[in-house]
């Protein structure tokens, strides 16, 4: 296969989005304030086309751009999840942004730009590609966080995310420079070949800084400081985006770099990942208990779920990577469904965000109440919903790897976190009814229904997700 042919087959989703976003910017500049609806629909079309390119494109593995970009089953699996997260965010955001008079064409453009960075990040196979991908993703996210310029909370959220994001990027870049200095190469494979036996202290420092920078992007404790404030302050569609697609890319590149660049020092990076996993699970379990805002609750929930995903990574084997892949897929569905429900929380045209606003939802809208209750049960890991199987696969991998204390802490953290998820269900079904929500758009109701059906039916037919995750894990080994 020639280079141009390989580029067309293996770089097609990124090419579609890169060319498409240029067209979106031109259309937005041409039509001005009237461009939002058209640009939003075209952005959704581009993301959908990129998903089709992954499903029906080349399935063989390839390395492009002098080894900077790799296309394998693991990358394609995570790219599908990332694109689904971005696509659903664009579809869910239209009504909210128009009602809030934020219907500028820039938001879908920012989503597509950030998604390009995520796709490059997932396929990064050297340190420079890693940094370029993470910065392209992050620069668009900084702007999106402060998208509502007239809202002080959104501006504060954007500033916090920018300052802390810049700090994390600096840490990652410093760690990458240490790794290059001690290995003499930027390639992940080259680093793996250069680091044999007992690693020098500088390599350990470099590894710590790189993992710290990536932990910030996935909001793993103790690098989670930005998460609750940004989730609460940013417009809800932006929060939904932050909670879904970027986390897929961050966990994926963390998985790739530890297994590809550091296969010979599993014991060293395993300790770091175990610490991040335990800290995230415990913080997510305890800190969410006292929250009154549903968006802050989802922020701490996402921190906890990233901890569970890292449990699979800490196992350090193929079963662990398979567990991580399955966890990401199920977490994405649960998160998008939950934010579809949150976006429907609107009373007399005004969005509401308190958990108490859900009071008596079962008597005002029984269908929505049932769907949201099932989402909460799944997030808590109650069988036979999909959330239970997500935790089952990562904890099983930890047990198989002999990490019994980690698995026990995971089970205890899951039991603690069930308290605040079940509290939401109690508010929905047993509290006195609050004012009924306004009629929600079809797109939100569809996302809520489809995600709930997936979570309810996963145990009946898990094969497609499990088989795809298994193939993705094998490609890293």
TrEMBL record:
Instruction: List the EC numbers from the record.
Output: 7.1.1.-
Where is the protein found, in the record's own terms? Answer: Cell membrane; Endomembrane system; Membrane
Matching entries from InterPro entries are given as: NADH-Q_OxRdtase_suN/2, ND/Mrp_TM
- Enumerate the Gene Ontology biological process terms: ATP synthesis coupled electron transport
Entry-linked Pfam families: Proton_antipo_M
The residues covered by the NADH:quinone oxidoreductase/Mrp antiporter transmembrane domain are 124-417
Its chief place of residence is membrane
Q: Which UniProt keywords apply?
A: Cell membrane, Membrane, NAD, Quinone, Translocase, Transmembrane, Transmembrane helix, Transport, Ubiquinone
**TM ranges:** 12-30, 37-56, 76-93, 105-122, 128-147, 159-182, 194-216, 248-266, 272-290, 297-316, 328-347, 368-390, 402-422, 442-461
Task: Tell me which domain of life the UniProt entry assigns to the organism this sequence originates from.
Answer: Bacteria
| Its membrane topology | Multi-pass membrane protein
Q: Name one GO molecular function term.
A: quinone binding
Q: Which residues form a coiled coil?
A: none
Any single GO CC term annotated in Swiss-Prot or TrEMBL for this entry: plasma membrane
Subunit structure comment from the entry: NDH-1 is composed of 14 different subunits. Subunits NuoA, H, J, K, L, M, N constitute the membrane sector of the complex.
Entries under HAMAP family matching the protein = NDH1_NuoN_1
Q: Which family does it belong to?
A: Belongs to the complex I subunit 2 family.
Spell out the protein name for this chain.
NADH-quinone oxidoreductase subunit N
Q: Organism, per UniProt?
A: Methylosinus sporium
Gene symbol of the encoding locus: nuoN
């Amino acid at each position: 296969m020639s280079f141009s042919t390989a580029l067309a087959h293996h770089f097609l989703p990124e090419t579609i989005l890169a060319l498409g976003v240029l067209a979106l910017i031109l259309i937005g500049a041409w039509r001005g304030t009237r461009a939002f609806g058209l640009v939003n629909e075209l952005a959704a079309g581009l993301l959908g086309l990129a998903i089709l390119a992954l499903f029906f494109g080349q399935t063989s593995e390839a390395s492009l751009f002098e080894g900077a970009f790799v296309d394998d089953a693991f990358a394609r699996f995570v790219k599908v999840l990332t694109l689904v997260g971005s696509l659903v965010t664009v579809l869910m955001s239209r009504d909210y942004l128009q009602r809030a008079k934020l219907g500028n064409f820039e938001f879908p453009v920012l989503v597509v730009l950030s998604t390009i960075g995520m796709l490059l990040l997932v396929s990064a196979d050297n340190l420079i590609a890693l940094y370029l991908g993470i910065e392209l993703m992050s620069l668009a996210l900084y702007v999106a966080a402060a998208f509502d310029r007239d809202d002080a909370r959104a501006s504060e959220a954007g500033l916090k995310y920018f300052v802390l994001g810049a700090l994390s990027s600096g840490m990652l870049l410093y760690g990458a420079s240490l790794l290059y200095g001690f290995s003499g190469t930027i390639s992940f494979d080259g680093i793996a070949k250069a680091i044999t036996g007992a690693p020098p202290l500088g390599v350990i420092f470099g590894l710590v800084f790189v993992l710290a920078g990536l932990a910030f992007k996935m909001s793993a404790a103790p690098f989670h400081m930005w998460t609750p404030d940004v989730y609460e302050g940013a417009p809800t569609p932006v929060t939904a985006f932050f909670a879904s697609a970027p986390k897929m890319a961050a966990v994926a590149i963390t998985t790739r770099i530890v297994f590809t660049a550091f296969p010979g020092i599993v014991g060293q990076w395993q300790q770091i990942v175990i610490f991040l996993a335990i800290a995230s699970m415990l913080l997510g379990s305890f800190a969410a208990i006292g929250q009154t805002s549903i968006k802050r609750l989802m922020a701490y929930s996402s921190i906890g779920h990233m901890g569970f995903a890292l449990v699979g990574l800490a196992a350090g084997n193929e079963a662990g990577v398979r567990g991580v892949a399955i966890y990401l897929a199920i977490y994405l569905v649960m998160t998008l469904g939950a934010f579809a429900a949150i976006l429907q929380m609107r009373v007399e045209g005004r969005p509401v965000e308190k958990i108490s606003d859900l009071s008596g939802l079962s008597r005002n809208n029984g269908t929505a109440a049932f769907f949201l209750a099932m989402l909460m049960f799944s997030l808590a890991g109650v069988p036979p919903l999909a959330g239970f199987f997500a935790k089952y696969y990562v904890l099983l991998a930890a047990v198989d790897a002999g990490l019994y204390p980690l698995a026990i802490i995971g089970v205890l953290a899951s039991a603690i976190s069930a308290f605040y998820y079940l509290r939401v269900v109690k508010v929905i079904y047993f509290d006195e009814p609050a004012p009924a929500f306004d009629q929600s758009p079809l797109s939100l109701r569809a996302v809520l229904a489809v995600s709930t059906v997936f979570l309810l039916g996963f145990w009946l037919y898990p094969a497609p997700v499990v088989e795809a995750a298994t193939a993705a894990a094998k490609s890293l080994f």
